[in-house]
Structure formats: C-alpha cells, structure tokens
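1st attempt posting a full record on here, be nice pls
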Amino acid sequence: LADPRFPRPRLDLLAHLKRMQRVESTDPNRDNRYRFYEAALHCESGRAAEGLDRVAPIRVFEPAHGSYIAGCAIAAGRTKEALRLTAAPEDADQEAVRGWALQAGRMSGAESQFRKAIMSDPTEPFARLGLAQLLVARGKRAEALELLGGAEAKLGPVPAVLKARVDAGGP
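the predicted structure (as tokens):
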C-alpha cells in the first residue's frame, strides 16, 4: 500500500538489473533467486507484466517470494498466476495473499481464506483489511470496524484502511 506522505524514489531499473546480472554471473550457486529479484525490480518499477513473465517457468518459490510475486500478479490483473503462486499457503501472510487473489478474481473462498489467515495470526493486518472489505459489502459493518481496528493498529492510517473505515460507517 503506497502512502503519499512518503513518496518512493524513482527506481533506476536498468542500473539495478545490470548490477544484479553482474553479481549473478559471478555466483557459482546460481538459482531461481535471481529471477525473483529481477521480477521484483520490474514489479517495483511499474512493469509487473515483464517481471511475471520472467518468473513464469519457476514452479517452486520460497514462501515470501511467492507471496510477493503473487501480490504483483494481483496488481497486474493476473489472478490465475497469483492463485498458482499461493496454491499451498504455509503461513498467515500467504493465506492473506491467497484471499486477496480469490477476491480479485471474484471467486468464492476469499472470506474463508481471510478467516483462516486470521486464525493462524490474529494480528495479520492484510487479512483483517480484506475480510473487513468483504463484510462491508455484505452490510456487516460492526464486524468490519472491529477488524479494521486491528489492521490500523499494525499498518497505521494508510489510505486503504481509512477508506474501508469510512465505507463501514466508522470515524
């Protein structure tokens, strides 16, 4: 979630890619991490589709890498890829990202995925935010506001939380 109070510096994608490729060429233990790093650089520079194409052949990710790339896929509108990357969530963060992927794809199961993430980690802010948004849409504003309190405690007053709070009818 971008916060307009803290603008991110412009990423010099070409310089970072060249530096990474130099490091990769000297690493005797090359593996898929370099493809992930390259994909992350593309995603951070607003070129998510290129980054996702770079990691498409990889079938197994480290859990945090898979969640990050799945987030990029959701942002790029590539829900099926996000679901593939989060097919077997191992922790609350991954469960929350899978919930967001299901929600983005307008598929059933998003609510149960968010609830599962919250059961695993009651303080997981992105699962709380996602579930709150679903509950607001269903008219369950009181439960949504309770969830948003926990999300805001972890994330602070970021725009997505504030918007969901207003949508829920809260202060």
